[in-house]
Amino acid sequence: MELRDLNTFKVIAETKKFRHASEILNYTQPTLTARIKNLEDELGIALLDRTSQGVNLTKAGELFLPYVQKIIKTAEEATDALILLKNDLTTNLLIGASFFVSCYELPSLLSTFRKHYPQICLHVRTARSTEIVPMVERNEIQLAIARGVVASASLEKIKLSEEPIVLCTHPSHPLSTLTRISLQDIGSIPLIAYQRGRGYWVVVEKAFENFSLKPVIMMELDSIEAIKKMIMQTVGASLLPYAAVQEEIAQKQIHALNIVNPGLTRDTYLYSGPLNKISKPTKAFVEMVKMIYCEPDKTSFNPE
């Protein structure tokens, strides 16, 4: 079977009119008829039934169409992949990320992307979420991964994850025997705070406010890494985004308690130009990130 014959059948089946298919494919109607006849002769069965109202699919045609659509889509994707490999060997991809994403999430994403697209040169800009998203609008970067919602009328926004904020203690802390805790109980625990009014701590403050609570702050730091060091030195406990401490939790250097009250989460979003207009490298990165975040059952990314 020739791909051109399959595509001819697909377009006729979807438009239901030989005339419309002729305009789309830029073929004469006799050419369309000849291609369909070649396909039907090869298969040994009729696929289309021409009527005065247009074209109907036979039972065989209805069965055959989904397979043809998959074949055409796969052929188009294969062609795009080869074009990317052939023409974009020195392509640059400019990525923006918030400080948190750049430190705790972007390294693994870039590692995966480089394995599949080593020909693409990556450039990363780091700034606050409210600063990095407008860079996409100004075409200074091609996409951004940021925390929280940043208003933009011109960009595509894809929600990637909803990450919990957890209470973190040293494994020797009395609370380390627990796995869950309420904000009400946290309210009496002296905490090491991140900068008040900044970053994820805004979510923490809002959650306490919603329950008419006020956290007890024993220390305030402007670095998540510094807070983790303090916890591991048994200085105190703190509330931290899970992604920032998952390695320490796995290594049993920090114990984390889930918070039962709603509202203590941070959303991660990917921002890009319209998906039908972005470059192929940008689209490849977007598809990879969507698969990793939005299809967690898939353990690895495979662009093929």
From TrEMBL:
PROSITE patterns: HTH_LYSR. InterPro entries: HTH-type_LysR_regulators, LysR_HTH_N, LysR_subst-bd, WH-like_DNA-bd_sf, WH_DNA-bd_sf. One of its GO terms (cellular component) is cytosol. Residues 1-58 form the HTH lysR-type domain. One of its GO terms (molecular function) is DNA-binding transcription factor activity. Keywords: DNA-binding, Transcription, Transcription regulation. The keyword Transcription regulation applies. CDD domains: PBP2_LTTR_substrate (cd05466). Gene3D superfamilies: 3.40.190.290, Winged helix-like DNA-binding domain superfamily/Winged helix DNA-binding domain. It comes from the Bacteria. Belongs to the LysR transcriptional regulatory family. This is HTH lysR-type domain-containing protein. It comes from Formimonas warabiya.
